[in-house]
Structures are given as structure tokens and as C-alpha cells.
Amino acid sequence: xxxxxxxxxxxxLLSVVTAGIIGARRPARHEKGARLSAATRATVPTTDxxxxxxxxxxxxxxxxxxxxxxxxxxxxxxASGTPRVVVxxxxxxxxxxxVDSSTFRVRTPCGAEMTVGRATVTPVAHATVVLDxxxxxxxxxxxxxxxxxxxxVNLAVVEVTSAVLQRAGFGVVxxxxxxxxxxxxxxxxVVNSLRPRAFVSVHPNAEPDGPFPRPGTETYYQIxxxxxxxxxxxxxxxxxxxxxxxxxxxxxxxxxxxxxRPGQGxxxxxxxxxxxxxxxxxxxxxxxxxxxxxAALLSRADxxxxxxxxxxxxxxxxxxxxxxxxxxxxxYPRTEPAGGGGGPEGCTDPPM
Length: 352
Ligand SMILES: [Zn+2]
Known about the structure:
Layout: H1 2-25, E1 85-87, E2 93-99, E3 103-107, E4 113-117, E5 122-124, E6 129-133, H2 150-167, E7 172-174, H3 184-194, E8 198-205, E9 210-211, E10 218-221, H4 226-243, E11 251-252, E12 257-259, H5 271-274, E13 281-288, H6 292-298, H7 301-320
Parallel strand pairs: 6-7, 6-8, 8-13, 10-12
Antiparallel strand pairs: 1-2, 1-5, 2-3, 3-4, 9-11, 10-13
Helix pairs in contact: 2-7, 4-7
The structure holds zinc ion.
Residues 46-47, 134-135, 141, 150, 203 line the site of zinc ion.
């Protein structure tokens, strides 16, 4: 009994330590505000569709009840207690596919398989929250007129969110901890390997309908998941309220709020929601990087702090309360693709 208790204590300690290591081992962040060529500005699509996207032409479905989700991608069959992801020396998070006595077979950010030695990586068996900084590497996402790239602000914001959550005692794993490409499938693999209680993908937005009297924050949820809907409503509520303190010329889509986007057959259009069924997931579009006044805000470290803290408050309320969230809106049908990217084509894995 004593030995069992000691083993349990050791495992708990390991999970706490490894959760901390994620924060500590991340490589130095890429340069903030790295300037990109004018040609790329505001022309790169903002949100991740799948490499083979369906369109949003179908009518909005009955929320939370009727749409049958596709079965989630099955996580690899691993013995209980086996690490679900490992973190490389450079801080790259690698979902585990198989284990033997001296190696892990893992999935890389670009979706390839590789084998890593046990001694070279840090195993992680559990996380309460997975956070996703959208885009990365050669996929900058949308770029503001001030040169601010979406990939940069996304990582800055989720690093704040992660720090707040870890201080509150929640284990956090980031899908990417540096400036490198990552496929949408590999991001979902991290989620499906860890099965956290909440997953949030963070982006700013682009291509608004027009001026708006308040922040045009949008959060998307999984159509068939009431938990996902509540998570998205709470993140929306916190972020919209936090940004409302700034007096700028906001822009928005007319249906800004917490909402859904169906693809063909009524399933979720966005890959980070469709590929993560079984985990309460939200795609958060915090503000419009394509709007110069908002891009100026987003470039400020203090505003990135405010956004990251707001996302964290939404997640913590989701985890610790029954609060319903707010901002729920019926979206108008969308037919335009959300943009390419997120596939393995041209993807180069970072140094491990
Ligand atoms: Zn994006």
C-alpha cells in the first residue's frame, strides 16, 4: 500500500513537473512583429480551413442537437500511463504513436512520422488544456498594415493564456511553441492524443463586413457539442468585455459573437473543430488584424496580455463553473472558403 501510494505520488509529481517543463523548455520566441513583404499584407487567409474544405453553403443546422458528428480520429492505442505526447529538446510537441523500450514513434508538426530516443525528449501524460497558436513558419496568416503577422500575435497571446492557466494550477500544452509550420491534422493529433478538458485555437480575424460599435470578437464552437458551445460563449464574453475598454474604430461581421460554421453535411467547417470531436474545442477570432486601428492595438504587449488573460478567464470559468457564456448568435450562411494552408505541402519540420 505504501509503495502504491508512493507510486501515485510520484506520477502526480511527474505530471506537474512535465506540465511546467512545457513552459520552461519552449525555444526562444521568434522575433515579435517580424515584418513581411507588402505583397503578403492582408492577403493571406485568416482562418484555417481544411486542405480539402467543404463549403459553408448549407443552412445553419439546429445547434447542439441534430448534427451527427463524424467519429473523432482515434488516438493511438497506448497502454495506460504511457506518455501521450513528448516534448523535444527544442520544445517541439510530438504526439506519440507507439512506444518501445528505448524510443517513441511520433508524429511531427508537418505530419511525418519519426522515431526519437527516450533520453532526448520529455514525456507528458496529461494536460487539462491544449492551446493552439494559429499558423506559423511560412504560413503567417493575415498580416496587418503595420506588418504584424497573425502567427506572431497568436503565439504571444497563447503564451500569456498558458502562463495564467499554469499559475491557476492547470496543466497546459501548446500545439506549437515556436515559429514553425504545423499542419491542421498535427494540431488535432496533439489534442486527440491528450484528450484535454478544453482546447482553444487563437487567431485574429480579417475581412469584416464593416464598422461596428464594439469589438467584433468571434468564437466558433463545435455544432454538436454543448460543452464546446459553452466554452466558446465564455471565451467570447471575456474577450469582448476585455477589448471593450479600448476606444478604437472597431470593425466586425454583422453576426459577430459565439457561433458555428457548418460545412458539407452539417459537420463543422473548421478543421480544428471538426478534427477534435470528443474534446470541447473553440476557435477564437479575437479582433481584426486587417483593421489598422485594431492591428495597432494587437501589436502592443499590454494588449496581448489583456487578450491572453481574457482567454484564460474564459477557460477557467468553463472548467470551474456552470456559467452559460453569452454572445450566441445565428450566423448567416458563408460560402467563401476560409482560405488554404494547414496542409503538409511544402511543410518543413523544425529542428527537434
Ligand atoms: Zn488565422
